[in-house]
Amino acid sequence: MSFDVDIALSQGRFRLEAQFSVPGGLTVLFGRSGSGKTTLINAVAGLITPERGRIQIGQRVLYDSVRGVALPAHKRRLGYIFQDARLFPHLSVQQNLLYAHRFLPRSSRTADPDRIVDLLGLGALLQRRPAQLSGGEKQRVAIGRALLAAPELLLADEPLTALDEARKLEILPYFERIRDELKVPVLYVSHAASEVARLASHVVVLDHGRVTQVGSASGVLSDPAIVPTGVRNVGSVLIAELFLQHSDGLSELRINGLKLFVPRIDRPIGTVMRLRVAAHDIILSNTRPEGLSALNVLPGTITAIRAGEGPGALVTLETAGGPMLARVTQRSVATLDLKVSKAIYAIMKSVAIAPQDIGTDGL
Q1: pLDDT of residue 2
Q2: 236-360 architecture in CATH?
Q3: CA triple 91-94-99, angle to 5 deg
Protein backbone atom coordinates (compact mmCIF):
# COMPACT_ATOMS: atom_id res chain seq x y z
CA MET A 1 0.00 0.00 0.00
CA SER A 2 1.57 3.26 -1.12
CA PHE A 3 1.86 6.30 1.11
CA ASP A 4 1.96 9.81 -0.37
CA VAL A 5 2.52 13.12 1.42
CA ASP A 6 2.81 16.63 0.01
CA ILE A 7 1.98 19.23 2.67
CA ALA A 8 2.99 22.61 4.05
CA LEU A 9 2.23 24.16 7.42
CA SER A 10 3.65 26.66 9.90
CA GLN A 11 3.88 26.54 13.69
CA GLY A 12 5.25 29.79 15.03
CA ARG A 13 8.58 30.34 13.31
CA PHE A 14 8.84 26.73 12.22
CA ARG A 15 7.89 25.90 8.63
CA LEU A 16 7.29 22.35 7.39
CA GLU A 17 7.22 21.66 3.66
CA ALA A 18 7.38 17.90 3.11
CA GLN A 19 6.83 15.88 -0.05
CA PHE A 20 7.54 12.15 -0.49
CA SER A 21 6.02 8.93 -1.76
CA VAL A 22 6.89 5.42 -0.52
CA PRO A 23 5.43 1.99 -1.41
CA GLY A 24 4.37 0.75 2.03
CA GLY A 25 6.50 -1.30 4.41
CA LEU A 26 8.05 0.41 7.44
CA THR A 27 9.06 3.98 6.63
CA VAL A 28 11.31 5.79 9.10
CA LEU A 29 11.17 9.57 9.42
CA PHE A 30 14.80 10.21 10.34
CA GLY A 31 16.28 13.45 11.60
CA ARG A 32 17.56 15.54 14.47
CA SER A 33 15.26 16.86 17.19
CA GLY A 34 13.35 19.83 15.82
CA SER A 35 13.55 18.70 12.19
CA GLY A 36 9.76 18.33 11.88
CA LYS A 37 9.28 14.58 12.33
CA THR A 38 6.55 14.75 15.00
CA THR A 39 4.85 17.69 13.27
CA LEU A 40 4.63 15.65 10.08
CA ILE A 41 3.30 12.52 11.77
CA ASN A 42 0.71 14.57 13.67
CA ALA A 43 -0.46 16.08 10.38
CA VAL A 44 -0.91 12.57 9.00
CA ALA A 45 -2.83 11.61 12.14
CA GLY A 46 -5.19 14.56 11.73
CA LEU A 47 -4.03 16.24 14.94
CA ILE A 48 -2.67 19.21 12.96
CA THR A 49 -4.26 20.64 9.81
CA PRO A 50 -1.85 21.64 7.03
CA GLU A 51 -2.26 24.94 5.21
CA ARG A 52 -2.21 23.15 1.88
CA GLY A 53 -1.39 19.84 0.29
CA ARG A 54 -2.45 16.22 0.13
CA ILE A 55 -2.10 13.05 2.25
CA GLN A 56 -3.08 9.71 0.74
CA ILE A 57 -2.82 6.07 1.88
CA GLY A 58 -3.35 3.67 -0.98
CA GLN A 59 -6.56 4.86 -2.63
CA ARG A 60 -7.84 6.69 0.46
CA VAL A 61 -7.38 10.47 0.57
CA LEU A 62 -7.06 11.71 4.15
CA TYR A 63 -6.43 15.33 3.31
CA ASP A 64 -6.65 17.36 0.11
CA SER A 65 -6.75 21.15 0.34
CA VAL A 66 -7.81 21.53 -3.30
CA ARG A 67 -10.79 19.19 -3.01
CA GLY A 68 -11.67 20.31 0.51
CA VAL A 69 -11.08 16.87 2.06
CA ALA A 70 -9.95 16.81 5.71
CA LEU A 71 -10.99 13.61 7.47
CA PRO A 72 -11.14 13.95 11.26
CA ALA A 73 -8.63 11.88 13.22
CA HIS A 74 -11.17 9.23 14.29
CA LYS A 75 -12.09 8.49 10.66
CA ARG A 76 -8.57 8.09 9.31
CA ARG A 77 -8.19 4.40 10.24
CA LEU A 78 -4.80 4.99 11.84
CA GLY A 79 -3.15 3.53 14.92
CA TYR A 80 -0.88 5.84 16.95
CA ILE A 81 1.90 4.71 19.32
CA PHE A 82 3.32 7.55 21.39
CA GLN A 83 6.64 7.86 23.23
CA ASP A 84 4.85 7.02 26.46
CA ALA A 85 2.31 4.20 26.45
CA ARG A 86 -0.68 6.36 27.55
CA LEU A 87 -2.64 3.38 28.89
CA PHE A 88 -5.80 3.82 30.93
CA PRO A 89 -4.62 3.17 34.51
CA HIS A 90 -8.03 1.96 35.75
CA LEU A 91 -8.37 -0.69 33.03
CA SER A 92 -6.72 -4.10 32.80
CA VAL A 93 -4.33 -4.95 29.98
CA GLN A 94 -7.11 -6.83 28.22
CA GLN A 95 -9.50 -3.88 28.54
CA ASN A 96 -6.83 -1.48 27.27
CA LEU A 97 -6.16 -3.72 24.28
CA LEU A 98 -9.81 -3.93 23.31
CA TYR A 99 -10.65 -0.26 23.99
CA ALA A 100 -10.65 0.89 20.35
CA HIS A 101 -11.46 -2.55 18.95
CA ARG A 102 -14.87 -2.69 20.62
CA PHE A 103 -15.95 0.62 19.02
CA LEU A 104 -15.32 -0.68 15.50
CA PRO A 105 -18.19 -1.97 13.37
CA ARG A 106 -18.04 -5.76 13.28
CA SER A 107 -17.20 -5.66 9.57
CA SER A 108 -14.10 -3.56 10.36
CA ARG A 109 -12.71 -5.82 13.10
CA THR A 110 -10.09 -7.33 10.84
CA ALA A 111 -7.44 -7.70 13.56
CA ASP A 112 -7.70 -10.91 15.61
CA PRO A 113 -7.23 -10.15 19.35
CA ASP A 114 -5.84 -13.63 20.06
CA ARG A 115 -3.28 -13.30 17.29
CA ILE A 116 -2.16 -9.87 18.49
CA VAL A 117 -1.87 -11.12 22.09
CA ASP A 118 0.26 -14.03 20.86
CA LEU A 119 2.35 -11.86 18.52
CA LEU A 120 3.24 -9.46 21.33
CA GLY A 121 3.58 -12.06 24.09
CA LEU A 122 0.85 -10.52 26.26
CA GLY A 123 -1.02 -13.65 27.35
CA ALA A 124 0.32 -13.67 30.92
CA LEU A 125 -0.39 -9.95 31.39
CA LEU A 126 -4.06 -9.69 30.43
CA GLN A 127 -5.47 -9.30 33.96
CA ARG A 128 -2.82 -6.87 35.21
CA ARG A 129 -3.21 -3.10 35.52
CA PRO A 130 -0.68 -0.72 33.92
CA ALA A 131 0.88 0.07 37.32
CA GLN A 132 1.97 -3.58 37.52
CA LEU A 133 3.82 -3.49 34.18
CA SER A 134 7.38 -2.64 33.21
CA GLY A 135 8.06 0.09 30.66
CA GLY A 136 8.57 -2.46 27.90
CA GLU A 137 5.38 -4.31 28.80
CA LYS A 138 3.39 -1.08 28.75
CA GLN A 139 4.70 -0.24 25.30
CA ARG A 140 3.81 -3.71 24.02
CA VAL A 141 0.26 -3.18 25.25
CA ALA A 142 0.17 0.22 23.52
CA ILE A 143 1.32 -1.43 20.29
CA GLY A 144 -1.37 -4.09 20.65
CA ARG A 145 -4.07 -1.51 21.31
CA ALA A 146 -3.07 0.39 18.16
CA LEU A 147 -3.08 -2.79 16.05
CA LEU A 148 -6.49 -3.84 17.33
CA ALA A 149 -7.92 -0.58 16.01
CA ALA A 150 -7.48 -2.31 12.59
CA PRO A 151 -5.39 0.55 11.18
CA GLU A 152 -4.55 0.97 7.53
CA LEU A 153 -1.40 2.73 8.71
CA LEU A 154 0.41 2.52 12.05
CA LEU A 155 2.08 5.70 13.34
CA ALA A 156 4.92 5.39 15.88
CA ASP A 157 6.44 8.56 17.31
CA GLU A 158 9.84 7.58 18.75
CA PRO A 159 8.24 4.65 20.61
CA LEU A 160 11.54 3.53 22.20
CA THR A 161 12.81 6.89 23.45
CA ALA A 162 11.53 6.50 27.02
CA LEU A 163 12.97 2.97 27.39
CA ASP A 164 16.39 1.80 28.57
CA GLU A 165 18.58 -0.32 26.28
CA ALA A 166 17.27 -3.63 27.66
CA ARG A 167 13.65 -2.63 27.05
CA LYS A 168 14.49 -1.34 23.56
CA LEU A 169 15.94 -4.74 22.70
CA GLU A 170 12.71 -6.27 23.98
CA ILE A 171 10.48 -4.12 21.74
CA LEU A 172 12.44 -4.00 18.45
CA PRO A 173 11.59 -7.59 17.40
CA TYR A 174 7.88 -6.82 17.69
CA PHE A 175 8.15 -4.04 15.12
CA GLU A 176 9.98 -6.50 12.87
CA ARG A 177 7.06 -8.92 13.23
CA ILE A 178 4.56 -6.15 12.44
CA ARG A 179 6.58 -5.32 9.31
CA ASP A 180 7.16 -8.91 8.19
CA GLU A 181 4.14 -10.90 9.41
CA LEU A 182 1.21 -8.49 9.71
CA LYS A 183 2.32 -6.40 6.71
CA VAL A 184 0.76 -3.29 8.28
CA PRO A 185 2.39 -0.14 6.82
CA VAL A 186 4.21 1.83 9.51
CA LEU A 187 5.36 5.46 9.65
CA TYR A 188 8.03 5.41 12.36
CA VAL A 189 9.75 8.49 13.81
CA SER A 190 13.34 8.06 15.00
CA HIS A 191 16.68 9.79 15.38
CA ALA A 192 18.56 6.54 16.13
CA ALA A 193 20.68 5.05 13.34
CA SER A 194 20.39 1.56 14.86
CA GLU A 195 16.58 1.66 14.55
CA VAL A 196 16.81 2.91 10.97
CA ALA A 197 19.25 0.14 9.99
CA ARG A 198 17.27 -2.59 11.68
CA LEU A 199 13.70 -1.68 10.79
CA ALA A 200 13.43 0.59 7.77
CA SER A 201 12.05 -0.51 4.42
CA HIS A 202 12.44 3.14 3.38
CA VAL A 203 13.94 6.22 5.02
CA VAL A 204 12.71 9.80 4.72
CA VAL A 205 15.33 12.24 6.02
CA LEU A 206 14.06 15.53 7.45
CA ASP A 207 16.13 18.62 8.20
CA HIS A 208 14.73 22.01 9.22
CA GLY A 209 11.27 21.10 7.99
CA ARG A 210 12.39 19.86 4.57
CA VAL A 211 12.74 16.37 3.10
CA THR A 212 16.39 16.11 2.08
CA GLN A 213 16.53 12.45 1.06
CA VAL A 214 14.31 9.44 0.44
CA GLY A 215 16.05 6.08 0.12
CA SER A 216 17.02 2.74 1.60
CA ALA A 217 18.56 2.33 5.05
CA SER A 218 21.89 1.29 3.52
CA GLY A 219 21.90 4.22 1.12
CA VAL A 220 21.09 6.83 3.75
CA LEU A 221 23.41 5.53 6.47
CA SER A 222 26.35 5.23 4.08
CA ASP A 223 26.46 8.91 3.21
CA PRO A 224 27.82 11.35 5.84
CA ALA A 225 26.31 14.22 3.86
CA ILE A 226 22.86 12.72 4.46
CA VAL A 227 22.99 11.20 7.96
CA PRO A 228 21.41 13.90 10.14
CA THR A 229 22.66 12.58 13.47
CA GLY A 230 26.41 12.82 12.97
CA VAL A 231 29.29 11.12 11.19
CA ARG A 232 29.62 8.49 13.94
CA ASN A 233 26.33 7.00 12.74
CA VAL A 234 27.64 6.44 9.22
CA GLY A 235 27.97 2.75 8.41
CA SER A 236 26.94 -0.24 6.34
CA VAL A 237 23.87 -2.46 6.38
CA LEU A 238 24.71 -6.08 5.56
CA ILE A 239 22.29 -8.90 4.75
CA ALA A 240 23.45 -12.35 5.90
CA GLU A 241 22.07 -15.81 6.64
CA LEU A 242 22.33 -17.40 10.07
CA PHE A 243 24.44 -20.50 9.37
CA LEU A 244 25.64 -22.04 12.64
CA GLN A 245 25.52 -21.64 16.43
CA HIS A 246 28.81 -22.13 18.29
CA SER A 247 29.18 -23.33 21.87
CA ASP A 248 31.30 -20.30 22.83
CA GLY A 249 28.36 -17.91 22.44
CA LEU A 250 28.97 -16.81 18.86
CA SER A 251 26.68 -17.14 15.87
CA GLU A 252 28.18 -17.72 12.44
CA LEU A 253 26.62 -15.87 9.52
CA ARG A 254 27.32 -16.39 5.84
CA ILE A 255 27.34 -13.69 3.17
CA ASN A 256 28.02 -15.11 -0.29
CA GLY A 257 30.40 -17.65 1.18
CA LEU A 258 32.06 -15.24 3.63
CA LYS A 259 31.98 -16.12 7.33
CA LEU A 260 30.94 -13.47 9.84
CA PHE A 261 30.96 -14.08 13.59
CA VAL A 262 28.67 -12.05 15.87
CA PRO A 263 27.31 -12.37 19.43
CA ARG A 264 24.73 -15.15 19.65
CA ILE A 265 21.48 -14.60 17.75
CA ASP A 266 18.56 -16.63 19.09
CA ARG A 267 16.93 -17.30 15.74
CA PRO A 268 16.44 -20.47 13.68
CA ILE A 269 19.26 -21.53 11.38
CA GLY A 270 18.59 -20.15 7.91
CA THR A 271 17.05 -16.90 9.13
CA VAL A 272 18.04 -13.93 6.98
CA MET A 273 19.50 -11.22 9.21
CA ARG A 274 20.19 -7.53 8.80
CA LEU A 275 23.26 -6.03 10.50
CA ARG A 276 24.45 -2.49 10.98
CA VAL A 277 28.23 -2.09 11.00
CA ALA A 278 29.49 1.35 12.05
CA ALA A 279 32.22 2.75 9.81
CA HIS A 280 34.36 3.70 12.81
CA ASP A 281 34.47 0.03 13.91
CA ILE A 282 36.27 -1.09 10.73
CA ILE A 283 40.08 -1.37 10.56
CA LEU A 284 41.83 -1.59 7.18
CA SER A 285 44.94 -3.60 6.29
CA ASN A 286 46.95 -3.96 3.09
CA THR A 287 47.57 -7.64 3.86
CA ARG A 288 45.51 -10.40 5.46
CA PRO A 289 46.24 -10.01 9.17
CA GLU A 290 47.47 -12.80 11.43
CA GLY A 291 47.61 -13.08 15.21
CA LEU A 292 44.68 -10.71 15.84
CA SER A 293 41.81 -11.17 18.29
CA ALA A 294 39.36 -9.84 15.69
CA LEU A 295 37.58 -12.75 13.98
CA ASN A 296 36.06 -11.07 10.95
CA VAL A 297 38.28 -10.32 7.96
CA LEU A 298 36.58 -9.40 4.68
CA PRO A 299 38.63 -8.88 1.50
CA GLY A 300 37.47 -6.07 -0.70
CA THR A 301 38.36 -3.46 -3.28
CA ILE A 302 38.34 0.28 -2.66
CA THR A 303 35.72 2.06 -4.78
CA ALA A 304 35.83 5.55 -3.25
CA ILE A 305 37.74 7.68 -0.75
CA ARG A 306 36.15 10.81 0.62
CA ALA A 307 38.10 13.18 2.88
CA GLY A 308 36.23 14.94 5.67
CA GLU A 309 36.58 18.50 6.87
CA GLY A 310 38.70 17.34 9.81
CA PRO A 311 41.37 14.62 9.97
CA GLY A 312 39.02 11.80 8.94
CA ALA A 313 38.27 10.07 5.66
CA LEU A 314 35.55 7.65 4.60
CA VAL A 315 36.71 4.68 2.53
CA THR A 316 34.11 2.68 0.57
CA LEU A 317 34.89 -0.96 -0.21
CA GLU A 318 33.16 -3.46 -2.43
CA THR A 319 33.17 -6.88 -0.77
CA ALA A 320 31.44 -10.20 -1.45
CA GLY A 321 28.99 -9.13 1.25
CA GLY A 322 28.22 -5.85 -0.47
CA PRO A 323 29.49 -2.29 0.04
CA MET A 324 31.24 -1.53 3.35
CA LEU A 325 32.49 1.71 4.79
CA ALA A 326 35.51 2.37 6.97
CA ARG A 327 36.18 5.65 8.75
CA VAL A 328 39.92 6.22 9.11
CA THR A 329 42.28 9.18 9.35
CA GLN A 330 43.66 10.90 6.29
CA ARG A 331 47.09 10.03 7.70
CA SER A 332 46.18 6.33 7.46
CA VAL A 333 45.04 6.85 3.87
CA ALA A 334 48.49 8.24 3.06
CA THR A 335 50.46 5.71 5.14
CA LEU A 336 48.66 2.72 3.61
CA ASP A 337 48.70 4.32 0.16
CA LEU A 338 44.97 3.78 -0.18
CA LYS A 339 43.49 4.51 -3.58
CA VAL A 340 40.55 3.50 -5.75
CA SER A 341 40.77 -0.07 -7.19
CA LYS A 342 43.29 -1.19 -4.57
CA ALA A 343 42.70 -4.57 -2.85
CA ILE A 344 42.28 -4.21 0.90
CA TYR A 345 41.12 -6.16 3.96
CA ALA A 346 38.40 -4.92 6.29
CA ILE A 347 38.76 -6.12 9.89
CA MET A 348 35.89 -6.12 12.37
CA LYS A 349 35.63 -7.35 15.96
CA SER A 350 32.68 -9.65 16.63
CA VAL A 351 31.71 -7.72 19.75
CA ALA A 352 31.65 -4.45 17.79
CA ILE A 353 28.22 -5.44 16.47
CA ALA A 354 25.76 -4.67 19.27
CA PRO A 355 22.58 -6.72 19.75
CA GLN A 356 20.41 -3.70 18.85
CA ASP A 357 22.22 -3.58 15.48
CA ILE A 358 21.14 -7.12 14.52
CA GLY A 359 17.64 -7.91 13.32
CA THR A 360 15.68 -9.97 10.84
CA ASP A 361 15.32 -8.93 7.24
CA GLY A 362 11.88 -9.67 5.87
CA LEU A 363 11.99 -7.22 2.98
Answers
A1: 87
A2: Beta Barrel (2.40)
A3: 70
